[in-house]
Design goal:
alpha/beta; Undecaprenyl pyrophosphate synthetase; binds farnesyl diphosphate; 8 helices
Length: about 240
């Protein structure tokens, strides 16, 4: 188990490997995504138990629209089903559920479930769970720039008032502390257009385990890794040690 004093406030996860998990068992890819839902449930429980404040899961990227039509449609169906089945339990556990991504690209049925889940859990004060669907880090920055530009054109903001804080506020996770730790399963070591802006100072933890096999043990390994890192934010280690001693 990780040292309690050093728990990341915000953990972001790229849940990779569902397809390979299914292929290893000679099952259709969709069976891997279904098994992935159980890993999501376990991860949410573990994160809440360990005292993580925010958890952001990459469920469907802007680029995932180019997967075979059948896989995309089954995944969207799975999101609807998972929302239907899991939201009451999340609510009982005081989890606040929110979605980030290009909502206008989603079908009506899913949008309605998302809105209902967000409404139902909006007053909860426990773990904040963000699910990224139709999300891309570059898209996020562009939509934030557009909002800032609108304000500038409307005369509400001078161009030289635009700084990192002004832009960050308009990102999908505006006002939420940046992820301290990024976990990626499935063996690849890349960011894949996830929270490009917000991950600037995150510690990165990669593992070979395929997402459906990810559980408490791996989550604790990632927390242990995080607890051993010295976060410098551009300072020297001597400066960091002077502040913390
Ligand atoms: C990546 O594995 C996974 C996805 C694109 C889908 C993630 C979705 C889930 C875990 C299902 C449920 C999620 C929620 C939030 C209810 P991959 O298909 O790219 O795997 P591969 O690299 O082995 O092919």
């Amino acid at each position: 188990m990780a040292n309690n004093e050093n728990i990341p406030r915000h953990v972001a996860v790229i849940m990779d490997g569902n397809g390979r998990w299914a292929r290893k068992r000679a099952l259709p890819r969709h069976a891997g995504h279904r098994a992935g839902v159980s890993a999501v449930r376990k991860t949410v429980e573990t994160a809440a138990q360990r005292g993580v404040e925010c958890l952001t899961l990459f469920a469907f990227s802007s680029e995932n629209w180019s997967r075979p039509r059948e896989e995309v449609s089954k995944l969207m169906g799975l999101f609807v089903e998972a929302l239907q089945r899991e939201v009451d339990q999340l609510h009982r556990n005081n989890v606040r559920l929110e979605f980030i991504g290009a909502r206008e690209q989603l079908q009506q049925g899913l949008l309605e479930k998302i809105a209902a889940a967000e409404r139902q859990t909006s007053g909860n004060t426990g773990l904040r769970l963000f699910v990224a669907v139709a999300y891309g880090g570059r898209w996020d920055i562009v939509q934030a720039v557009r909002k800032v530009a609108d304000r500038a054109v409307a005369g509400e903001l001078a161009v030289d008032e635009i700084d990192e804080q002004v832009l960050a506020k308009q990102l999908q996770l505006g006002g939420v502390p940046d992820p301290d730790l990024l976990i990626r399963t499935g063996g690849e070591q890349r960011i894949s257009n996830f929270l490009l802006w917000n991950l600037a100072y995150a510690e990165l933890w990669f593992c070979d385990v395929l997402w459906p096999d990810f559980g408490e043990q791996q989550f604790d390994e990632a927390l242990g890794f995080f607890g051993r890192r010295q976060r410098r934010y551009g300072h020297t280690s001597e400066q960091v040690e002077a502040v913390s001693s």
